[in-house]
Amino acid sequence: MPSIRSAAFGLLSSLALSLPAVSVPALGQTAYVSNNPPYSIQSGPHPGFGVELVNEMAKLLKTKVNYEFMAWGEAQAKVKAGHDLLIFPFARTPEREPNYTWMQKLFDNNVLFVSKSGASPIDSVEQAKALASIGVLDGSPWDKELEKRGLTNVKRYPTSLALVSAVVSGEVAAGYGPDLELKYAWRVGENPGEPVFGKQIQKVDQFLAESKDSPSIKQEDWQAAFGAIQQDGTFDRIYASYFGSK
Predict the structure, then answer these.
(1) pTM confidence score
(2) Which residue range forms the structural domain that includes residue 187?
(3) 102 and 114, same domain (yes or no)
(4) Residue 246's pLDDT band (boundaries 50, 70, 90)?
(5) 219-231 and 49-60 are packed helices; what angle lies between their axes, rounded to 10 degrees?
(6) Are 101 and 218 in the same domain?
(7) Looking at the DSSP assignment, which residues form a beta bridge with residue 40?
(8) In angstroms, rounded to a whole number, what is the distance separating the alpha carbons of residues 78 and 91?
(9) What are the residues whose beta carbons fall under 8 Å from the beta carbon of 196, sequence distance 6 or more?
(10) Contact 75, 30 (CB under 8 A)
């Protein structure tokens, strides 16, 4: 049986052989993104988890992605109205479904409760309701979800870093949010120990999407490139650099 490395090499070779048929603009593709750590970061030593994944895919396709940062709502509107434009990471919802082409799922966001090192995991909303307080990112979908589920013991924070800091200090008994954002904030904040995660409460698939009118973008090539970076270990390497081990 061929090794994963051999299989990945074969897939990369196949991509390389098909490159003359790939239709991309001479100056590459354009992606509209927001400053949304850890996925896309406008300034700093690291461009973001999502940006690095997309850059590696683009390398295999012998093209380049140019990033334009803007407010998230503006990015969605421009990609919806434009052509040959990319957007990510983008949650696939029934409302958005008909307005974009969903090229490739990049990763899952598992939304859950996080507690400080050494604490017991919070595995359910009912457990969370019994706590003195739960922290959440102010105005986020997760904030709205807790409200919808009837939690009244919620404290809101302006950033994931502030939320995680409150969990570590004991200001709140637990926090609620996507695991990747919480892991990243924990690492960047250089907090002691390891976070304690409860069971998944919500799951959000995050996609690389494109404008409906995108004749210059070949979806199957981008999908093949994503498969290649998964098989050759590139995806796991980039993941570990932002979040640690899975």
Answers:
(1) 0.86
(2) 110-202
(3) no
(4) confident
(5) 110
(6) yes
(7) 36
(8) 16
(9) 114, 115, 116, 117, 118, 119, 120, 121
(10) no
